[in-house]
Amino acid sequence: MIKQAEADAATAAVVAFGGAGAITATGAGLLLWRARLPALASALGLLPPRGAAGRAIIVGLGGGALAAVTAAGYLALLSALAPLLPGVQAALDEARQGQAAADGWRLVLLAVVLAPLCEEFIFRGLLFRGLRRDLTPWAAAAASAAVFAIIHPSLGVVPVFVLGVACALAYERTGWLLAPVLAHALYNAVIVGLAR
Question: Which of 11, 31, 60, 147 has a Cα-to-Cα distance from 21 of 20 to 30 A?
Answer without folding.
Answer: 60
